[in-house]
C-alpha cells in the first residue's frame, strides 16, 4: 500500500461503512461510503489515493488531491493553529505544514508553494514550503537544450528560480522573461546552459535556431487573429513586441525573417501582413 500515492486495488468486501480494498500483499484499506461507486463487483479494480485520516487510520479516496507525495504544488492555507498550518489539498483531511517547515510564517487565506513528503518519524504526509531542500543538482538528469517542465518557485534580484522536472533548481534571468509569472505557475522551458557547479540556466524560449519555428507560429496566429496585420516592425520597441507577442525583439526578428523567406508574410513600413 503506497501512502500518498495512487494505488490500483481490488474490491474485497462490502460493509456498512464502505468497501474494503486489498493490494497484492493482502493489505486492506477502507474506501468510505461517500466514495463508493454506484455500481461495482467484488474483485473489480479501482484507482484510489491512500492516506491517513483524522484518527491516523489508513483510508482510501477516489477524490484526487492537488498534490501527492514527492510533488510540488501551490496550496491555500485554511487555518493556523498552535501546531502549524493546515492546507487545502482537495481532501476532507487538510495537509499539515509544521512551523519548522515554513519558509515564511503562513497565514490563513495565503497561497504557498509546498512539497509533500512522508515524515518517517510519524508516518504522516506533511508539507514543506522550504522547497529548495528537496531539490538536488549534484547529479543532473537533464542536458543542454533539453526541454523541461518548470514550476515557478521564487523571484530573486536576477530572475525567477524554477523547479526543473520536479528534481533540480534552475534560474530564468530577468532579461529572458517576456511574460508575467507568478509563484506556482507551471511552464515549459529549455536548458540553455549548464554552468560550473551544475547550475542550470533556463530559457522559456527554445535556444538559437530551435526557437525560430515556434515563434514564427506564434506570429502567424497573431496575424490570423488580427485580420492579417500586425503593427510591428524591426523598428518597434522591445516593450511593444513583448506586450503583443511575449517574445524578445531578437526572437521576433528571427521569426519574421523565417516567415519572409517562406513567403508567408509581407513586410511594409507600417507593419507585417499575412500573405
From TrEMBL:
Belongs to the CvfB family. Pfam families: S1_2, WHD_CvfB. InterPro entries: CvfB_fam (IPR014464), CvfB_S1_st (IPR039566), CvfB_WH (IPR040764), NA-bd_OB-fold (IPR012340), WH-like_DNA-bd_sf (IPR036388). Residues 3-62 form the Conserved virulence factor B first S1 domain. Residues 217-274 form the Conserved virulence factor B-like winged helix domain. It comes from Hyunsoonleella rubra. It comes from the Bacteria. This is S1 RNA-binding domain-containing protein.
